[in-house]
Design goal:
By secondary structure, this protein is α+β, with helices and mostly antiparallel strands. The protein folds into two domains: 10-330, Zn peptidases (Aminopeptidase, 3-Layer(aba) Sandwich), CATH 3.40.630.10; 356-440, Pdz3 Domain (Roll). It has helices at 10-13, 36-47, 60-75, 168-187, 207-214, 251-258, 278-282, 311-330, 382-385, 405-413; strands at 102-111, 114-128, 138-144, 193-199, 223-229, 239-243, 265-269, 288-292, 356-357, 360-362, 372-377, 393-397, 400-401, 420-427, 430-437, 439-440. It has an eight-stranded mixed beta sheet with strand order 1-2-4-3-5-8-6-7, with helices on both faces. Strands 10, 11, 12, 13, 14 and 15 form a six-stranded antiparallel beta sheet that branches. Helix 2 (36-47) crosses helix 4. The protein is globular. The chain starts with 9 loop residues before the first helix and ends with a strand.
């Protein structure tokens, strides 16, 4: 998952920090011979293993991850999309060729003050044909499978150098959940067809999802909605954040109806923008949902390890998502797309950041709160030392009023390490003024 600013460090750099690595053997790409939770564990262990070196876009590890996913879809006997420029895959359908689930493209990666880098890479896509009168319409279910690789520039632990960033939660968790959902839907198809997509290049700027949304293999008018899973592997207290519920007036009811016992504690957010792949489809005027189990201290560090995941939580997310997707695919009527107006949500910061570090962890499910609510603070961080606590709502940072996470990012980025800043927080019914001494990221 990308941080919700162009520098990708700024919002969450403001928020977190840590370290480590792991060793896992590659599982078979054959279809589920073990209970689903064990298959989820084996799959994410492989995707986050040292062998794939963090799945950086354009690397051999990313290519291996793509082929692993493609083999799974082939083993599930899903259909590939038509690729007219590739003879062996021109017609699509069930070909028995795993390679036909690979959608190659060249990603153009912006480089400041230099020509863009051109990376040969790939998305992975498959179709589960619908079995009803709306089989010519589609619900898209997707997740990105790339991560940072050994890139230290966009990591939150740059002091460690070019170490592997495993990306178990970001976004090994979403990737394996989508593969599990595909298995279930293939076993019991829906009325509409399901287009399953795994994107690359998300960490570099939604490159894979933008490529796919700009060149849909089906007419846009036949797409019912897009459902995105990104960072769904650290569920705590059964909490799940669902973005995009106002991008169609029918979505809130669909989400509520899908939340059956044992119920999840769902935080519903209306906006369809945001730092993940659903935004590429929302910008094409399609209804979207984005599922997310919130930020954590290991985000974009070498400590985003498989053993830190809540695998049973991923299974719960898959259960809920399956119900949502079936509802979208089986409902008689089309959704009604609508744009959502939310303050600051469509205004990513241009600030590149100054390496300043506070150690606050935003509560991304509290988007309707005026201010920036914290889900926690990093132990020993400037935020912790200054007295900030989980549940605090930052309403003023220095002389800047904070109404959302974007205001906070701008305010933090305007300072430098060593600055002493007054922070006004709402704590329960009281307002508390604290003084924090800002640190330096990576120190």
């Amino acid at each position: 998952m990308r941080a919700p600013v162009r520098s990708r460090g700024a919002v969450l750099t403001a928020a977190l920090l840590v370290t480590s690595a792991c060793h896992r053997a590659a599982p078979t790409a054959a279809v589920f011979r073990t209970p689903p939770v064990e298959q989820l564990r084996a799959d994410v262990d492989y995707l986050a293993s040292p062998a794939l070196e963090g799945r950086g876009t354009g690397t051999a590890g990313n290519d291996s991850a793509a082929m692993f996913i493609a083999r799974r879809y082939n083993a599930l006997h899903l259909a590939s999309v038509a690729q007219p420029d590739r003879a062996a895959c021109a017609k699509g359908g069930v070909t028995g060729k795993a390679d036909c689930f690979i959608l190659p493209f060249t990603a153009s990666v912006p480089v400041r003050n230099a020509a863009a880098r051109q990376l040969k890479t790939q998305n992975v896509a498959a179709i589960i044909p619908g079995h009803g009168r709306h089989a010519g319409e589609y619900v898209i279910v997707g997740a990105h499978f790339d991560h940072l690789g050994r890139d230290s520039a966009n990591a939150r632990d740059p002091e460690k150098g070019h170490v592997i960033h495993p990306g178990a939660d970001d976004n090994g968790s979403g990737t394996v959940a989508v593969m599990e959902i595909a298995r279930r839907l293939a076993r019991r198809p829906t009325d509409r067809s399901i287009l399953v997509v795994n994107f690359t290049g998300e960490e570099l700027g939604l490159l894979g999802s933008s490529e796919f949304a700009n060149h849909l293999p089906v007419p846009k008018e036949q797409v019912q909605a897009m459902v995105n899973l990104d960072m769904v592997g650290r569920m705590k207290n059964d909490k799940l954040i669902v973005y995009g519920v106002l991008t169609a007036p029918e979505l809130k009811g669909i989400v509520d109806s899908a939340n059956v016992a044992p119920k999840l504690a769902i935080s519903a957010v209306g906006d369809g923008e945001g730092p993940s792949d659903h935004a590429a489809f929302y910008r094409k005027d399609l209804p979207v949902l984005h599922l997310f189990t919130d930020l954590h201290d290991d985000y974009h560090t070498a400590n985003d390890l498989p053993e830190r995941l809540n695998i049973e939580g991923i299974e719960h997310v898959a259960d809920f998502t399956e119900r949502v997707v079936r509802s979208l695919a089986d409902r008689p009527a089309r959704l009604t797309f609508q744009r959502v107006q939310t303050a600051g949500a469509n205004r990513p910061s241009e600030r590149q950041g100054s390496g300043v570090y506070l150690g606050s962890i935003p509560d991304m499910g509290a988007a309707d709160v005026k201010g920036m609510q914290l889900s926690g603070v990093r132990p020993g961080s400037p935020a912790d030392q200054g007295g900030l606590k989980a549940g605090d709502i930052i309403v003023k940072f220095g002389d800047k009023v904070i109404t959302n996470i974007y205001d906070y990012t701008d305010a933090l980025g305007a300072h430098k390490p060593g600055d002493v800043v007054e922070v006004l927080v709402k704590r329960g019914e009281a307002e508390v003024t604290l003084k924090v001494t800002l640190g330096r990221r990576g120190s």
